[in-house]
Amino acid sequence: MALPAVLAVGVMASVMAEGALAASFAVSGTSFQVSSGKLTSQGLSSYVQTDRDIDGKGHPVALLGIGDATLSDICQAAEVKTPVGTVVFKLTAGGDAGNVTASNLIIDGEDLVGDARFGTAQIGRDASTLDEVPGVQGEKGKFGLQAGDITVAGVKSHAWSATGGNFRLKGMRVDVSLGGKKCF
């Protein structure tokens, strides 16, 4: 009896590892900054959804499904309250060390700012029919958009979560400091 369940869990784990299915989890209740000098990707799919924190509070986000992404550099920073004060958890990578890459990157963002170029954009497409990034589809009848390829320079975003099938972080550095400097 356990064999079908074990097989199902194995298939789901495999699909999640490949980035075709985003893991469902409660967000921390702390949004974070993400920035990059330049982001390029073969494929973008996006639609609106609501992330929930552990207390059930909703956070409206644009789910951004990004196919095979290349970033010139990356900075991620979150302010975290601790018993000794507010610390900044900051992760950086790329730059002189080389590009950062991720496959099937899923970002649940509040905003995205930068200078963008979308190739073959389809804006207003039904979210359930999105097919540019495998596994990234919304609910039937909901607003969606997608593009065949994208380039965004000067990326700045506030996000609630990010998952990816295969991150390659060259020159990664993690810093945790009281009153530390964020990305922007």
Description:
Residues 1-23 have low confidence and may be disordered. The chain has one helix spanning 2-17, and strands at residues 32-52, 58-71, 73-82, 85-94, 100-119, 122-126, 143-147, 149-163, 173-178. The radius of gyration is 17 Å and the shape is globular. Strands 1, 2, 3, 4, 5, 6, 7, 8 and 9 form a 9-stranded antiparallel β-sheet that branches. It is mainly β. It has 1 helix and 9 strands, in the order αβββββββββ.
N-to-C SSE series?
HEEEEEEEEE
Sheet/helix structural class: mainly beta
Strand content: over 45%
**Radius of gyration, whole Å:** 17 Å
Q: Treating each run of at least 4 consecutive H or I residues as one helix, how many helices?
A: 1
What general outline do the C-alpha atoms trace?
globular
Straight-line N-to-C gap: 53 Å
- Stretches where pLDDT falls below 50 for ≥5 residues? 1-23
**Largest beta-sheet details:** 9 strands, antiparallel
